[in-house]
Specification:
Blueprint (H helix, E strand, L loop, with lengths): L1 E6 L3 E8 L1 H6 L6 E9 L6 H11 L7 E6 L5 H12 L4 E2 L9 E2 L9 H15 L32 E6 L2 E7 L4 E9 L1 H10 L20 H28 L4 E6 L2 H5 L8 E2 L3 H25 L3
Parallel strand pairs: 1-4, 4-5, 6-9, 7-10, 10-11
Antiparallel strand pairs: 1-2, 2-3, 7-8, 8-9
Helix pairs in contact: 2-3, 4-8
Length: 305
């Protein structure tokens, strides 16, 4: 079974996939997400404490693969070592340097967050190529995969795709018609906005993200909810529209993250797809792309035959 770990600034999301052995040989085969857990991103926890958590959560499961996407530098080595000790495997740590299945054409690919790479790769394979699940229609993009050392891949797809990820930050990850991750946008997430209003003003209270009943709030709480919830919806509507103009094509808009359902109800244009586990599915796909390559590389370094 494959353990996928999305380590964010607020929380760590863990997903356990079954059937990944079949998906390695056939990308269209997919794999089932059988368990999902969410932990707080606690930089103060030690490696042995993370080992205890992993042993407790995955007791009875045969975990033989692991891939980690982390945007928290302090947690990456702890979690990687904990997974290695608990499961006796060497985790793959996602970065722009491994095979991502897409070309990253940002000005500085090293700046691309691991979660954003996972989103872009997952959206490309699910919504542009149509692999991974029967509920997604197969697109016309059928360019064959080549080895990383071969010529650059050109995935000519029907439409570009924009992933809107509701996390600590609300991020927009854009994959163009050629299957290239070209960049996107980053804005404060809902809770970050709410926390900032409370922390940096003397009279505005902390409130939880909730339904905004009216655009014109007639009390402080309703006014904050209107500004944050409806304001985020308006930002997404307008920003995706501007992105489509720059792309020269209507895009497939995919939402992921905890608050996508809350914000979507205030948008003029609804999301084409809502996939709460897109990041984990992207990680699963990236593991399948890299496990054979990295295993062969490790054997070569050790001199195995």
């Amino acid at each position: 079974m494959l353990l996928t770990a999305d380590i964010g600034n607020t929380s760590i999301t863990l997903g356990l996939f079954d059937g990944c052995e079949d998906a390695i040989s056939s990308p269209a085969a997919g794999a089932a997400l059988v368990e999902q857990f969410r932990l707080a991103s606690d930089k103060d926890l030690s490696q042995p404490e993370y080992e205890v958590l992993l042993k407790s959560l995955f007791k009875g499961f045969d975990v033989n693969g692991c891939i980690i996407a982390s945007v928290v530098n302090e947690l990456t080595p702890k979690f990687c070592a904990a997974a290695a000790n608990v499961f006796g495997i060497e985790p793959i740590v996602l970065s722009h340097e491994i095979d991502t299945g897409i070309k990253i054409t940002m000005q500085n690919p090293a700046e691309a967050g691991a979660d954003r790479i996972a989103n872009a790769a997952g959206a490309h394979i699910l919504y542009q190529q149509g692999f991974g699940a029967d509920i997604f229609p197969r697109r016309t993009c059928t360019a064959p995969r080549v080895a990383p050392e071969g010529p650059p891949r050109q995935h000519i797809c029907a439409k570009p795709v924009i992933v809107v990820d509701f996390g600590t930050a609300t991020s927009f990850d854009v994959v163009n018609q050629n299957g290239e991750f070209i960049g996107g946008a980053i804005a404060p997430g809902l809770n970050l906005q709410l926390n900032t209003l409370s922390k940096y003003t003397s009279k505005l209270p902390w409130i939880d993200a909730a339904i905004s009943h009216t655009a014109v709030g007639n009390n402080t709480a309703d006014a904050i909810l209107s500004g944050v919830i409806r304001g985020s919806a308006a930002m997404i509507d307008n920003l995706t529209c501007q992105m489509e103009k720059e792309l020269g094509s209507q895009a497939i808009i995919v939402a992921t993250g905890g608050y996508c359902g809350l914000v979507a109800s205030y948008m003029n244009r609804k999301f084409d797809f809502v996939n709460p586990t897109l990041t984990l599915e992207g990680l699963r796909h990236l593991y399948n792309l890299n496990v054979g390559i990295l295993t062969k590389t490790a054997h070569h370094v050790r001199g195995d035959r």
